[in-house]
């Protein structure tokens, strides 16, 4: 995936810290994964944490619920929630992922992000347990 051609509002690089199997049967696996990494972007940079709930089908594709916390270098917190889709991994264990949701912050400097929408796309390496996504924000300018 070639990202250098496009400018993004946010770039997230994270690695899984824990994975828990919540439920399993012959049709689905429900997982909960916690990830930690870095977020860099146009509006802020800092630490990224998320909890991802995935319902994975037999082919490896999954529906996702994402909850995240970003802590900026200035100690400002940005939180968000959203949903997404992870495609079945290729032969190298790489899955394409897309997601969208809403974000909030109590930081006065970042108040323009409140209620803003985010969209992300990128890759999950299911073997290395890493996430590399790029995203954009839709925010009001009021």
Task: Report on the architecture of this protein.
This protein has 142 residues and is mainly beta. It has strands spanning 10-24, 28-41, 46-57, 62-72, 77-86, 94-105, 117-125, 130-138. It has one domain (10-138): Beta Barrel (Porin). It is 0% helix and 65% strand. The protein has an eight-stranded antiparallel β-barrel. The model has no long low-confidence stretch (mean pLDDT 94).
* CATH architecture assignment: Beta Barrel
Note the beta-strand portion: over 45%
- The chain-level structural class is mainly beta
Q: How many helices in DSSP terms?
A: 0
CATH level 1 class label: Mainly Beta
Q: Percent range for helical residues?
A: under 10%
Distance between the amino and carboxyl termini: 34 Å
Tell me the domain tally: 1
**Multimeric organization:** single chain
Radius of gyration: 15 Å
Low-pLDDT segments: none
Which terms would index this structure?
142 residues, mainly beta, Porin, elongated
Sequence-ordered SSE layout with sheet pairings:
Elements: E1 10-24, E2 28-41, E3 46-57, E4 62-72, E5 77-86, E6 94-105, E7 117-125, E8 130-138
Would you kindly provide a brief summary of this structure?
The chain is 0% helix and 65% strand. By secondary structure, the protein is mainly beta. β3 and β4 form a beta hairpin.
């Amino acid at each position: 995936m070639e990202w250098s051609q496009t400018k993004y509002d946010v770039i997230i690089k994270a690695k899984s810290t824990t994975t828990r199997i919540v439920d399993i049967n012959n049709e689905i696996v429900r997982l909960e994964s916690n990830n930690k990494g870095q977020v860099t972007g146009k509006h802020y940079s800092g630490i990224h944490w998320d909890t991802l709930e995935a319902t994975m089908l037999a082919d490896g594709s999954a529906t996702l619920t994402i909850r995240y916390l970003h802590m900026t270098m200035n100690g400002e917190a940005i939180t968000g929630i959203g949903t997404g889709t992870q495609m079945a991994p290729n032969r190298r264990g790489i899955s394409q992922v897309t997601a969208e949701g809403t974000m909030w912050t109590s930081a006065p400097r970042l108040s323009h992000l409140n209620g803003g929408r985010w969209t992300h796309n990128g890759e999950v390496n299911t073997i290395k347990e890493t996430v590399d996504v790029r995203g954009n924000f839709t925010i009001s300018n009021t």
